[in-house]
Amino acid sequence: MTNGDAAAAAHRAELKRRFAAAVELDAEARADYLARECPRELRTELAELLAHAADDGFLAPASETPLALPDCGGDGLGGDLGSVPRRLGAYAIEREIGSGGMGRVFLATQDKPRRPVALKIMHYHGSSELAVRFAREAELLGRLEHPGIARIYEAGVDATLGVPFLAMEFVAGAGLLDHVSRAELDDRARLELVAAIADAVAHAHQKGVIHRDLKPGNVLVTSRGQPVILDFGIARPAASEPDLETTRAGQVLGTVAYMSPEQAAGRITDVDTRADVWALGVIAFELLSRGQRPHELDDLGLTAALQRLVEQSPRSLASVAPGLRGDVSTIVDKALATDRDRRYPTAAALADDVRRFLASEPISARPATTVYQLRKFAARHRGLVLAVGGALLALVIGASIAAWQAVVAHDAAGRERVARQRAERRLGDVQEFATHSVFRVHDRIKHLPGAAEGRQMLVDLGLEALRKLHAEEGDDPRLMRQVAQAYLWQGRLRGGDTSHRGDSTSAGECFGEAVRLWRLVVDSDHPEQSTDASKYGLALYYLARHHVDAERSDVAQRLLREAVAVMRPAVARYPAEIDLPGDLGAVLNQLGRLRLRRGDRAGAIALFDEALVQSRESLRRSTTPADRAYQLRGLVVSHSWLGNFYFEAGELDRAWREYESFHECAAAGHELMPQNELDQSNLAVAEGKLARVLLARGQPVAAIERLRRGFDLLEPLVAEDPGNLRRVFQLFSTQRKLMQALHELGRDHDVLAELAATEAFEPALAGGAGENRTWQRALAWRGACAARAHARLGAPGAALAALGATVDAARRGHVAAADGADPSAVREAAAVARARASVLHAVLFAAAALTDHRLIGR
Amino acid sequence: MPSQDPLRPDSSDAGRGPGREQPAASELEPEVYAELRAVAAGYLRGRAAGATLQPTVLVHEAWVRLARPSAPGTGPRWRSATHFAALAAKVMRDVLVDQLRARRAQKRGGGCRAVTLQTALAGEAGPTVDVLALHEALARLAAIDSEQARIVELRFFGGLTGDEIAEVQGISRRTVVRELQMAQAWLLREMQRGDGHDER
Predict the structure, then answer these.
(1) Residues with Cβ within 8 Å of residue A611, at least 6 apart in sequence
(2) Residues B117-156 pLDDT 10s
(3) So what's the ipTM on this one?
(4) Least CB-CB distance to B4: which of A123, A392, A402?
(5) Do A401 and B15 touch (CB under 8 A)?
(6) Last-in-domain residue among A139, A169, A199
(7) How many structural domains are present in chain A?
(8) Does residue A307 belong to the interface with chain B, where contact is any CB pair within 8 Å?
(9) pTM to 2 decimals?
């Protein structure tokens, strides 16, 4: 750098500094500033700049700086061709017959041989590389010879105008959509048309050419009914992509609607013949549904449309054209499988299946299996959730953290106090963001079916963001509260009540971390917040439940007592805290449950009763339906435990009363929040509990009615989220009880049908529940019931086989109960013993049946 | 609130802070150039007078095209649309200026108005800025303050927001705002001085 440069740079820097200072001032103060504070050598320039300063303007952040286009009075081709050229190479142009995003098409006459051609002139020009690739592709396409594909006569670049052009067979015909509506074709004729288009595409596939941009606009139908595909691959001269036509409003037209998910996702290497199969599927869908499409993309911008293609599964043809349910829908749906491996591999395979259908032969495509459909369903909702959260949240969190870090970095330089305040504001912003966006979104979507994975992702994101902040600013109690809350959510998603994903170890770690942070918050001298007691208490509660599940009752009990000590005084101190009493109620219920296990009957009842009082207090404080439903859930738990207690004690009437209250609360909650899966499953469980009493009273018919109702409530929940083991187990238990009731009615065939239905859940449950004694007991009950049914039906072999597994389950259940760290697991052991007795009973049954069988056999 | 542009999902990279690498412009430029040229040509051609156009839209369109399939051997090689837009800003400027010059040459004397930038809010007729005049003034600015000129380029031709410029240039957002404020005043003054291009 020369001295002159250095001086100029210094001058510039000074000018900038002065400008920044002066521009903040009003006119009068500016004049003053110029006169008094500005060095003479800068004064003139600064004055001039200030005179041009404006808050808005073409560089202002708010201005969208649209470009006003010149008024040249020209037509569509603008400056390049000026107007329609009369000639191009060996072609005499007659008139324009179409135009698109990439070029215009003219009807022209070739000199030699003399024939009409469609002459397409590309907008693209200026790159010789493009022209070369364009020519190479044209040559490749020249090899395609099929009545369903418009022939290419010549491709080149006009020497005078420098415009790439393409001379194609001129097809006199109507557009595909026009043709079908004008000719009023029936479904059969439409299918024949689809098969004919697929034939043409298949020919290209055989020659190694993929169209990639099939759409009705690229298909003409001749007067003889032959569809002809135009623009085979040429629509994109080599370097580009299917053209994206956007209207001024930004709506997406044309091509995108026919784009396969892999194309929309930009997975270039995945684009193969199956992308064309997809497009054929969309065309078939549109023809057969009379104008609808598998994805609704209307009113979406380009990126939103692409996103929907990637993230949503297409709807089934049968859903918009119920008359085509069956083979036709199966064929079209298969062409439109999101996973390209599930599509027809080639257009030929699609054409074959269509023809098989037309010839009334069995088609090769099979309707999607239930499991597959379930997965698709979950994927669809995951898509929704991701669309809400994913990209935007990642973006915002990332940007906020960057901004925060930048501020922290600048702190080091000095100006501590001001920077510090600003940093704290930033921190507040990010925290607020984390709470409002991540957790609010989490809350909003948590009752959407299939949202579990999306929620997990949101919470992961939020936690990650908070963890980063925590690492920077670890001693801030506000932050610790948020991180603790995030851990709580994490834990609940991984293995808690909201969605049991069977990952209880990591869930326990999350709860432990939440409790650890809360203890730090409480020990700090940061002023207490009204919500602290409730959140701290809940963290303890969840950690305690984790220990209960792991059969560590004493640890759990300690944690629950800590929670009660935190929450009980806070209930009176914060009368505006709606949830607090109910949350305390949950803690008390859990504590009561542990008391009961230790045989402290009076103590347990006192705790359950207090829990009821607290939950009713929360209900009293609640006004909104969501709040009331939440509190009702607390009441449900109290009644449930009381009912269980009386039931085990053999006091069936008192048990019935508690279960009725349970049912009443659950029904009220379900009515308030019909979309909430927890309320729905609670109601189902209530039916099961009442059925339990009915069975014990010897009223199997009434029990079956209740159990069927429970089943109908649970089944859709399991279908929506098969990964939620808690629901799966509830459904399993319902069916198990149903088996028992049916058996008592002597309907043993029905027992075995239910048995078969429960077996589907077994692997998932066995994996998630393992040695858990409740599960083993349920297995033992079910096996015993099945064995008895087999025996009574005269199938002793099957009965014995069922017993083999059952005895094993009963034994393990017994061992689990006996080994429990809990010294007075008498109740559990008794239940298992009953299950064993039932098994023994079944053994006798089987033995008797076996004897009969032998006798008959002889 | 940072941009909600769904085209920019990768901006979470911003979490890495100011030290991020600059786009390697040289290796990608030919391709981007060809694409932007095509996109800009497509837009400028056939637009009626009074139709408006935003450089941001062009850049996004090019982004979609380049990140989409069917470009043989190419893929989304940009970490984010921000990264891409930063890269594209200079190219966009060249392309627009080239094409507008060519058009002007062709239409000389044809009563064609200069291509201008509307600076008013939508619907209102406000003061306009001649793109070619801006381009030349910007070249003069680059001679005395290249960083400020680059910031203007990113803002105007790349359509980047203040935050994004801050991220790309590794400076604070506040600095970006200040630089733009001064650059705007400087450029307006400069364009007023050398009003030679406006044929109105």
Answers:
(1) A584, A585, A586, A588, A589, A592, A634, A637, A638
(2) 433 233 333 345 677 788 889 999 998 888 899 998 888 8
(3) 0.70
(4) A392
(5) yes
(6) A169
(7) 4
(8) yes
(9) 0.38
